[in-house]
Amino acid sequence: MPDFQLDLSSQLPYIGISIFDIIFAIVAFIVGYILIILIVKIFRKSLMKTGLSRILTEFLSKFLKILLIVILILAILPILNIDVSAIVIGISAVIGLILGFGMQDTMTNVFAGFWLAVLKPFEVGDYVQVNGMEGSLKNVGIMSTVLLTPDNKYIMIPNTLVWGASIVNYTKMPTRRVAVDIGISYESDLDKAIKILMDIMLRDNRILKNPKPTVIVSELADSSINLQLRAWVKTENYWDLKNDLTKKILKILPGEGIEIPYPKMDIRIIKPQ
Are 223 and 188 in contact (CB under 8 A)? Predict the structure, then answer.
């Protein structure tokens, strides 16, 4: 049987580079990529010390990482006997063409993401409404903004749509006003109902003393007098308080003789004569 030997120093005839060149290029890329990760990590920590927002810090860190990876690839290509100058010229021509036609939206998204990171209408973790969609802000990337809904849906919105839309930030301010609507019957004692509702709010320590909680008559509806409880709380207590107030109202008012009406339908059956 003939002996077969692998000559590692032999040249690959169809590409004109040795196996050692390929191995060296792979090792160089791995080492370079590890260095890039370390550089970006140091860069991110340095930005955090300057007091920049988390969004802007992440945006600039990602941009630096992409830039360094491109530089790394261009530095490795000569090892494989590839003419970098020709590639750069070719890429520049292609980029110029793409920017003129197909990449306008892409560049607009990049600039929109940059301004979102700089002006900071929201921070990571804020609960926002953007372009008709709601969720907790997970990330502002170079191209898109990511929201995570309460039921764990992942929403990706192009930065241009975020920048050009109205943004409602529910958690940016330290306090919020809770509003709970309740209807009582016209036969119920209105003053008594208001007093009971005020007592419910005043006994809750989560409600701020200033501004003072209030109960207003919001509407004289067809079958009920509609009241609204208004109380200021810390933003993190908003939903818990709203839920607790609603349950307490349902539990306490009927026991105090205050009727909470519900839609009724009277049906009259007329017997034929």
Answer: no
